[in-house]
Specification:
The strands form 2 sheets. A 5-stranded mixed sheet has the order 5-4-3-6-7, with helices on both faces. Helix 1 crosses helix 2. The protein has 2 domains: 89 residues, ATPase, nucleotide binding domain (Nucleotidyltransferase, domain 5, 2-Layer Sandwich), CATH 3.30.420.40; 158 residues, ATPase, nucleotide binding domain (Nucleotidyltransferase, domain 5), CATH 3.30.420.40. It is built from 8 helices and 7 strands, in the order H-E-H-E-H-E-E-E-H-H-H-E-H-E-H. The mean pLDDT is 94. The two termini are 21 Å apart. The protein is of the alpha/beta class.
């Protein structure tokens, strides 16, 4: 990706089945090398990865990738690609991409969310991406939305991720989540709206931007239900009228966000350029 947001090359591979730690890394490294090809002008590799993780992604422990616990992703990837690598949470990366190139360009206070295999969030407050003590700020997927709900991979129960992520919906349906009917799509939207309402009331946000295969795939049923729930639960004067909208970058949002993480590590910020 260029530093003005244009995606030049895009590739993907399926996650290996029954993978071990090194098998997964080998697939990732091969994919990155294929994309790089003979290009010697790449400045940095940016990565958006599921969390939690230690500062700067030195060690990652994505909840939905059991094979990676305390995995030294940045070091391994940097050595494998022979270049600088910068890593952040995938939802924080999404927020950064939206702030720079998407629907967050004119916003100073917003939440960006991924509702997909997992559910995560990234926060922009007063025009800055919020990192938190260890870089893990924004884990809205682990806000409790059903106190007596399903067990979550984090060890708690009733988390938004345990109730409205793709795998949780698939387990409840006994089928691929893409087959979910209107009732299930609305249920996911309601739960997302419930979690988002707490964040909006707490942080005085202007807007919430949501992407990911579940949210974008469920479409209008999901977003209408999410906004109805948000409206009912945000009754403070400053929180009334806040909306949940699709990300501006669509399906490219995760890639743009990952690249933005790389550029951020180099001190590049497109918002500071003269108009």
């Amino acid at each position: 990706m260029t530093d003005d947001g244009d995606v030049l090359i895009m590739e993907q591979v399926p996650t290996p089945q029954d993978f071990q730690s090194d098998q997964l890394f080998s697939s990732l490294l091969a994919l990155a090398r294929d994309v790089l090809g003979a290009n010697t002008e790449v400045a940095v590799c940016g990565v958006g990865c599921g969390g939690p993780m230690t500062q700067n992604g030195e060690r990652v422990s994505p909840l939905n990738i059991p094979a990676w616990r305390e995995f030294p992703l940045r070091e391994r990837l940097s050595k494998g690609l022979e270049m600088g690598v910068s890593i952040d949470n995938d939802a924080k990366a999404l927020a950064l991409g939206e702030a720079w190139f998407g629907a967050g360009k004119k916003l100073s206070n917003f939440l960006a969310m991924v509702v997909s295999t997992g559910i995560g969030g990234g926060l922009f407050i007063d025009g800055q991406l919020v990192d938190g003590a260890a870089g893990n700020a924004g884990h809205i997927g682990h806000v409790i939305v059903e106190p007596e709900g399903a067990d979550c991979v984090c060890g708690s129960r009733g988390c938004l991720e345990a109730e409205a992520s793709g795998p949780s919906i698939g387990r409840r349906l006994g089928a691929d989540p893409s087959s979910a009917g209107a009732k299930e799509r609305r249920r996911a939207g309601v739960l997302v709206g419930r979690a988002v309402a707490s964040a909006v009331n707490l942080l005085d946000l202007e807007q919430v931007l949501v992407g990911g295969s579940v949210a974008l795939g469920f479409g209008e049923d999901f977003f209408a239900a999410a906004n109805n729930e948000l409206s009912e639960r945000c009754q403070l004067e400053f929180s009334r009228g806040v909306q949940i909208l699709p990300v501006g970058l669509g399906t490219e949002a995760p890639l743009v966000g990952a690249a933005a993480v790389g550029f951020r590590s180099l001190g590049i910020d497109p918002r500071t350029r003269p108009i």
